[in-house]
Every structure is written in structure tokens, then in C-alpha cells.
Amino acid sequence: MHLGYREEDEAFRTELRRWLAANLPPPEKLREPKRSSAHLPDWARQWQRRLFDEGWLVPGWPPELGGRMATPVQQMIYFEEMAAGEIPRSLNPQGLSIVTPSIVEFGTEDQKERWALPTLRAELTWCLGMSEPGAGSDLAGLSTRAVLDGDHFVVNGQKVWTSGAHHADWCLCFVRTDTEVPKHRGISALIVDMRSAGITCRPLPELTDPQAADFNEVFFSDVAVPAENLLGAPGDGWRITQGSLAHERGMLWIDNAQKVRRGLDALFEMARRPGPDGSSPSSDPVFRDRAARLAVDAQAMVLLGYRGFAKFARGQASPEHLMLKLFSSEVERRLYLEGVEALGPDALDTTLPGPPLWKEGSWAFQYLRSFAGTIAGGTSEIQRNIIAERILGLPRS
Ligand SMILES: Cc1cc2nc3c(=O)[nH]c(=O)nc-3n(C[C@H](O)[C@H](O)[C@H](O)COP(=O)(O)OP(=O)(O)OC[C@H]3O[C@@H](n4cnc5c(N)ncnc54)[C@H](O)[C@@H]3O)c2cc1C
To answer: FRET pair for 182, CA 20 to 30 Å: which of 120, 212, 352, 375?
Structure first.
């Protein structure tokens, strides 16, 4: 049996590598700290625009949408190469990978022209208004109201944890438009201009860096939104959230697998350094055992990803993607915990070896940050419930 890529797929990889070598922004730009997940500095706008113009932004899409009709295998090669080089496609990932596919799938031709294309060309940035103080895991319980009044909706309510809201131009906002039907069916998706009168953003300081907020509380007070900004039909909101989150999960595993690979390399490098008494974590049998387990998990993650991908490429359902969101975020959290435990107080030292493009901080910082992956896009507990019910067929909790 020959396990490998076909000639045309290797040619695709070579062409991509050549293009990246000739066009990639300088490393100091790629390492620049981000102001938020909806802030695009000039270099990032130009970079995304170049990717779009040359069909490297969403390779599986047609050229008019920034792609080149790449096959599923070629798309996987693309994501592997980008993740291996830690190359961002956009500094507004929710705009590119969640909002745009939702508009392409559910929007009218006008909406695609007005919002999807400019977003692909890095002219617009987005935030996602899903979570509320009383509706996170139970998203269907959201209570921000939108009432149709003539040719516009009037929106009142509050969102929270809205990444990049203070820099975003637009918000894909999930609102309750019908209180008479079961809660999943009364939700609609509205495209809201973040500069509308009545919107207030309050950035929330974060555990990992109180100075650099990405999260926001967003308050809506009698915000007028034109009726034509409704995405899909009234009541389509739940279907769109499921699509949006699937887009988010679909893209995650390759990136996560690479992050874990780099984290492991850094863990092994750090573990070889002798401490003050001359011994190093790598000679501790307990550390070695745990590190070996992490290495096995990292490899299992990649194989699970390939298995899911093989099904996806054959047009079959691939429940592996649900498992990978849970597995990869939990492995990443364990990995940084291992580093923190091995280092003790030195885990706060920002000069110790970390992954190659490690921009901020220490092992302790990365450990705190690794919790984000176990919460964003659905917490680990909720993923376990979904796996139990949808994959294992267990009764509802
Ligand atoms: C980095 C990051 C970025 C984010 N960006 C955005 C964004 O841009 N826009 C947006 O709308 N939201 C965003 N979020 C919010 C995220 O979607 C929510 O935090 C997440 O859905 C959990 O909701 P919650 O915080 O309200 O927790 P809750 O739902 O209140 O849950 C609290 C705890 O209870 C557990 N729990 C709840 N229900 C169950 C159950 N049925 N069974 C077992 N355990 C349960 C949860 O697992 C969790 O541990 C972001 C979060 C993070 C971490």
C-alpha cells in the first residue's frame, strides 16, 4: 500500500510554498501583538487582500470568492502549510471563517455583494453576538429582542464575551424575534452596524492581560436595524448558529494539532534544561510518563483528524470533528499544565524556551490562556454531552 499524496497534490503544495516564500509579510509583522480579533492593521489588510486576489484565501471556493476550486485534499494541504508556518489568513478570524460562510450560505445576492465580498477583501471586520449573561451554553435561551417596526427592527438587550466588538465594523447578532414559538425557533440573525446609535461596548479586562481586552459587553438600547439586514428568513437564527459553529469547528483541528506539536517540542526542550540542583524534569520518571502520554495523544489527534477528513472528503458525516474540538483543547491545556508543574515558580519566566513564534509570555501565561479553547465555541462539558447524545446515542442529560 502506498500512503502519500498524488502528484498533482504535491504540485499544489509546491506552488503554495513558492507563493508564500515570495509574498509572506515579514516575521516581525506576523509576531506583532494583536490589538483585538477585529483590528486589522494596514499590513494585515494588504496581506488578506493579496491572498484573496491570488486565490489563496479560501482555496476551496471559486476565484470570485478568493479561491481556486481546490479539492478537499488540497484544502487540507493548504491548512497544514499555513498552520505549520503559523501564518494567519486574516486577523479577524470570526469575519473570515464564521460570518462570511454564513452569508454565502444563507444570504441574498445583495447581502453577498454588500458584506461577504468586502469582508473577504479585508475591507470590513466583524464580531459575533451570540452569548448573553443568561445564555452561553444554553444559547437558545437568548433574550436580546428585535421587534419589527415598519422597515426596521428595534433591538434591545445585552451580549457578552463579544470578541473584538470595540473594533468591529459589523456584528452578526442573534436576536429573539418571536416569543410565541419554542425557543429555538424564535431566533433570527441580524447584521448590525456597530456604529449605530444606541450601541455601547464595554471592553472586559482579561486574566492573561488586563491591559489588552478582546472581550466586550455590548449593550443595545433601541438600536434601529434595517429590515433588509435580516440574514435568512425570520426564525432561521438557530440553523445559522449551527452552521456558524460548524464552520468554526471544521477549521480548528489542523491548527490545534500543530499548536500541540509545537508546544510538545517546547516542553521537551524545556524539560532537558538542568535546574539549580543539576537535575532536569526529563530525568523524572513521572514527568516522562506524562510527557509520553501527551505525545501519544498528539499523534492520536492527528490520526483522528485524518479519519474525519477522509469521511468528509467522501461526503460522509464526520463526528470526529466534534471529538477533536474537545480532545485538542483538553490536550493543549494538559500540556501547558505539565510545563507549569515541571517549572514551578520558573513558569512565570518569560525567557524560557517556548514554541517558535511564541509571542507573549511564560508557561504560566500560556496555561491560563489554554482554558479559552475549552470554553470558546462550546465548553468541554457541552461537547461531552453532544458526543454522548449524538455519537454514542446515550439518553439526554
Ligand atoms: C476566547 C473566547 C472567545 C469568545 N468569543 C465569543 C464571541 O465572539 N461571541 C460570543 O457570543 N461568545 C463568545 N465567547 C463566549 C462563549 O461562547 C461562551 O463562554 C461559552 O459558550 C460558554 O458560555 P458561558 O460563558 O455563558 O458559560 P455557562 O453556559 O454559564 O457555563 C458555565 C459552566 O457550566 C457548565 N455547563 C453549562 N451547562 C451545562 C450542561 N448542560 N451540562 C454540563 N455542564 C454545563 C459549562 O460547561 C461551564 O463550565 C467566547 C469565549 C471565549 C473563551
So the answer is: 375
Measured from the Cα of 163, ligand 1's closest atom is: 8
Considering the entire predicted model, what is its pTM?
0.93
Instruction: Cell numbers for 153, please give them.
Output: 427592527
- Indicate whether 58 and 199 sit together in one domain: no
Would you say residue 397 lies in a domain?
A: no
Last residue of a domain, one of 235, 263, 293: 235
- Is 136 near ligand 1, meaning CB less than 6 Å away? yes
Question: Residue 115 C-alpha to ligand 1 middle, in angstroms?
Answer: 28
Torsion angle of alpha carbons 245, 356, 363, 371, nearest 10°? 0
Q: Which domain holds residue 38?
A: 7-120
Catalytic residue selected from 80, 86, 248, 332:
248
Whether 225 lines ligand 1, by a CB cut-off of 6 Å, is: no
pLDDT digits (tens, 9 = 90+) for 48-104: 999 999 999 999 999 999 999 999 899 999 999 999 888 999 999 999 999 999 999
321: helix, strand or coil: helix
